[in-house]
Amino acid sequence: MNPATHRHPASYRDPAGFVFEEDGILYRQIHPRYQPSYEQLKQSGLYDRLVSEKLLIPHEEISQPNTADAFRIIRPQRIRPVIPPFCWTYNMLLDAAIATLRIQTIALQHGMILKDAHPSNIQFIGASPILIDTLSFETWIKTKPWIAYRQYCESFLLPLVIGHHGVPDSPKLLRAWPGGIPLETGRTMLPLRSKLSLHWLLHLHLHARQSRQGDTPKSSSTGFSSGQMKNLIHSLKLGTTRCHAGNKHSGWTNYEQQVSARGQYTSHKLAVIQKESAALSGIDTILDLGSNTGNYSNALRNISEKIIQLESDPQTANALYEKNKTAGDQNSLSLCLNVEDLLPAGCDHGLIPSLKSDLVLCLGLLHHLTYRNYIPLPDVLNLLAQLTNKYLWIEYIDPTDPLIREHFNPERVEQRLIDLETFEKQLETLFTTRYHTQLADSSRRLYLCSKK
User: Which residue, 67, 110, 341, 354, is the most exposed by fewest CB within 10 angstroms?
Assistant: First the structure.
């Protein structure tokens, strides 16, 4: 085992250790400087408490290396997929923020604090947030303020409050500012009425003014008491839990009901997908692109419980996340992401390997990618081939379809016109068609394909 040569490219900032992968297994090397904190984490009972409450991933101690630069190597439970926070829905960011404060509260009870409070340290198992950075803890020195306070405000509280005031896809701001939205910049995005909340006024507006002087919560010569720390966390919790997603509906929220009005189209489509998919074998994960309410991928739970649902509309994606959370679903991951962002020009951030699945659904989406977003058909199909290990469901929508005439600019459709012959010819370059049919009460066609 040679950790240094297999270091994960995203693991380079933490002086306490780093993550590496060998033979498909993920490990974490802990440096000697972190030994006191690691031992306190384990001996204080904090590790056991957090793992039992499913707030921290468990790990196995693999070895105690005889090298000067390594104290211990651990093998943490692997979370798949690992998704950056800018792909989350609003309520995912909110739940991750609440979980972070919960972890901090428990850590204080065991004489430790979180030294990091960034969303990237949290991932989701279904609809449950969990901390994946075992080395995020250090001894709580009760005369010092919370070192991660500003980070929490900039990467959690600020985008949540911005979203509360009418920006349903506010987690996307973390794509522009991966380390958190600078307080002075972010406060200009907030309306004056945001100052009416004492907690938002304190942690965002006044904090931004104070940050111009290079300070965090007051840490003058009088010190910072344990009582102040607990009050700080309590105030952050009140400010965070006051945040709400706002308008829960958009033009796409009731799209399935609109389409279902078209005779037997929806029921036929669902029945075909269920019947033909039942014969597929070796399906571990299903990826639903443009999932909307998730009806089609949810109908395939008989072949796989692991489902990743991508929806670009923030309100619809957020509603789907809440639906899965209410159902206690620990297998479905609902994300807010444009499929076009996975293309090279969209700066995919290495998401394709994380999203790659055995069965991909591309239903009612192709015309949006080609006619609305001007993505050439070969590029769309190439992306789908990268995303699937085995199978693809894809829906062809004829240019004469009523919804295309209603929602798309005729000139755009004419410029990107894809007739059936062209579609099938392009599809066969990367896939082998196993089954296809025309859907009832529609000119639309459905194809089940195997990747070549």
Answer: 67
Instruction: Evaluate whether 18 touches 7 at the Cβ level (below 8 Å).
Output: yes
Among residues 363, 244, 256, the alpha carbon closest in space to that of 316 is found at 256
Asked whether 361 and 393 are in contact (CB, 8 A), the reply is yes
Are 290 and 356 within one domain? Answer: yes
In the listed set 189, 209, 241, which residue is the last one of a domain according to the structure? 241
Q: What is the pLDDT of residue 224?
A: 86
Whether residue 281 is found in the same domain as residue 227: no
Sheet with strand 17-22: strands edge to edge:
17-22, 25-30, 72-76, 59-63
Contact between 35 and 17 under an 8 Å Cβ cutoff? The reply is no
* pLDDT score, position 417: 75
| Chain segment 298-321, per-residue pLDDT in tens | 999 999 999 999 999 999 999 999
Tens digits of residue pLDDT in 48-80: 999 999 999 999 998 767 667 889 999 999 998
Domain end (from 241, 267, 294): 241
